[in-house]
């Protein structure tokens, strides 16, 4: 179960197991899919989640420490999700379960919409909203390699590699853990422990579907914009998974081999299938309206003055005539809100083999082999040619007389000349693009462990992981082919052909509403490819044991763990020449090859000292510490450390606290992302004959006395900006403070309560600064001036001049709050003198007191706790919780559960008083209301060999809160995905058969 706060009783560990499920009806859909879903989750926030020591040892280890001791507890809060929780929720995507935890924020997953920062086909974890790059993911206590080389937003581990049906439990440790596990653990650690010593054969099958009743009032906005809006009940998004687990113990239990194979298939759900997702939204004084793109179909034509280049009018096709221009109106824009998927179609295969064999107490061999292949169809809106200047010959036979006059004749251009026209075109005839993305991962671990002396154990292993990536994008436009196809002429045979037909060009007629032909589309459209990989190699060794000495007031000895580790990371990314030449219309900024690697050598140690045990007011008092020295080939030397203590005055109360100094070395994309000069809209206060900045200010940015007052203004205020990675980045550093208390009142048997305060601050944040901020800081404060490189000849920020907007270390990010949890279990027979089974209650909630960001050192920080919006991104409510009540029949064969999930309300960040956030917003777009979700689940054991589970989540079909102020990778147009249920009710049925 989801536990998060057990352990306060003698011997310092209370197992609080809350049955998690959600029950209720089922329905049948397509191929006998029993509908249903939703679990309830059991919470017990805190310690243990114990793992038995190897070779049958009695010591246990907890996630967050490598020390093996009896009755282990943790000084850091741990939330545990059990295999029962996963099964009763009917999950086919682990991120869907984890995103319901108050400590976890939505990130990459199957519900992300395609787009600029949208879906990647991976699934990543974001603890405390500190970013997936600051959450370390482990499998059986060992690192999971990074999942995607193409997108910096997906540079974290891809948990699609984790076989859901093979998971025994998931431990979530929030707060720094770099001293124990190394870089990336600034926000915390998520450890997936897989089943060990599995015996027999188990078959698991699950099927679920979403049902939604359309009836959101926002549908009227789409209707007013002339959009087709779904009505009534919709059913779709079928999710199915099947797995087989087979294991065998041998050699009198000294060895085990377990194999696992699973298949998952998920159907897509389009934004056009939900009334609340038909449009992206604008907030106007009159109310919400559909946000329409000016890149539209039919095209928008901006006609220019051939002498000055100035725009002299914007036009589109007159629908009445079909081939004449009329003035462009904003209502002519294109609605791309209904052209994406709320849930991307996906297919995944996992295959795993786990084995261990104890040759003797001194030698146990173990190994893991894991394979994953995931294929996602990421649907994107029809591609757009975004205001590209095109040369159109005035003799083009597709031009009507009126069009030719406006474009050419009226400004003195002859048939022998060409007009420069800024074209904005949406490829509506070609339909949505599809990014067919495939990730194929391999992970292998081989190791030895055992007892080297009484009380001392060793563990040494080698690990290799690799993810291969490929992308095939269809339906996008080649800008070169598009430009070629617009220059049509009439040949000697009277046929309309391309002026340059050498490459098989077919002329494209965008000057008529019926002019685009299939042959012309086939010519301008292309298939564009990207390939890449990430690779990780690890060699690690450690010893754990006790020193044989103890405090005079304690019976347990001092325990230590010592180890060393070598790790190497590599990345490669190769886009085709269309991407690297900026020829892909939907990605006109281009993508470029990435190649790089780093390695790190580390030494680490931990110590735990029981100071007092079994004394008055000191049932136990212990301190612990740890340190890790790392040498990176790129980032140099780093040092992480931790210190903590726990004190139980009596069995029923345990106080604990810790301080952890963690580090995160820059990842491969942050280091080696290709650098290139692009453009940024920027007003340079040092340009023109009368600069707005003084010479002294401009001199700080590199302007000479000769250049001052002579710098030519940049055309269109578009200056140069260097973007990309930075191999000179320093590691991020964080300090985490945590302290709390656990109480298990002896007069309320079965009840455990815990409260924990956390404070996490990340300094030297790896981020990027907009060119406008960098230049302003240099001019006004004299900082970041080394990020400005002016043209040495002219002093301008064009041609060879630019502002560096590559990754850099700047500012900080801090979050503080309090975690609450409660767990209770009561046999009803103790209350009513009848055998009526057992009732359990589990609660977990988080209050976020502060979420503060400072982009530039020395400038005003801004707060995002309680806000959402274009700067803060996804909502950061001050309160989130889950509460579950469950009942288990006396026989244990029936389990019922109901869960209440609560997400607090948030405000538009533009309503903040912080200068960096404050802005104009509409009153009705001020707030996202609090959301309550209710889930039901049931499970039934049948004849001891079969378990049937049924459930519904989001029983009342709550729509996600709607807003016009969305941003970030979890933005799905008018709402935030992942945090909110966005597809309606989910109904599931699953069955487990043990043979």
Describe it.
With 995 residues, this protein is mostly beta strands. The chain has a domain at 28-197: TonB-dependent receptor, plug domain (Ferric Hydroxamate Uptake Protein, Chain A, domain 1). Helices cover 7% and strands 46% of the residues. The chain contains 12 helices and 54 strands. It is globular. It is a multi-pass membrane protein. Residues 1-44 form the signal peptide. Belongs to the TonB-dependent receptor family.
What's the gyration radius in Å?
31 Å
Assign the CATH architecture of the domain at 28-197: Beta Complex
The level 1 CATH classification of the domain at 28-197 is: Mainly Beta
Separation of the first and last Cα atoms: 24 Å
Q: Please identify which CATH superfamily of the domain at 28-197 we are dealing with.
A: TonB-dependent receptor, plug domain
Task: Round the mean pLDDT to the nearest integer and report it.
Answer: 88
> In terms of quaternary structure, what is this?
single chain
| Helix/strand class | mainly beta
Low-confidence stretches: 1-58
Shape, principal axes of CA atoms: globular
The CATH topology of the domain at 28-197 is given as Ferric Hydroxamate Uptake Protein, Chain A, domain 1
Q: Count of helices?
A: 12
Query: How many strand segments?
Result: 54
Strand content: over 45%
Main β-sheet: number of strands, strand sense, barrel status?
22 strands, antiparallel, barrel
**Helix content percent band:** under 10%
Keywords: Cell outer membrane, Membrane, Receptor, Signal, TonB box, Transmembrane, Transmembrane beta strand, Transport
Protein name: TonB-denpendent receptor
Main location: membrane
Region (Disordered): 1-22
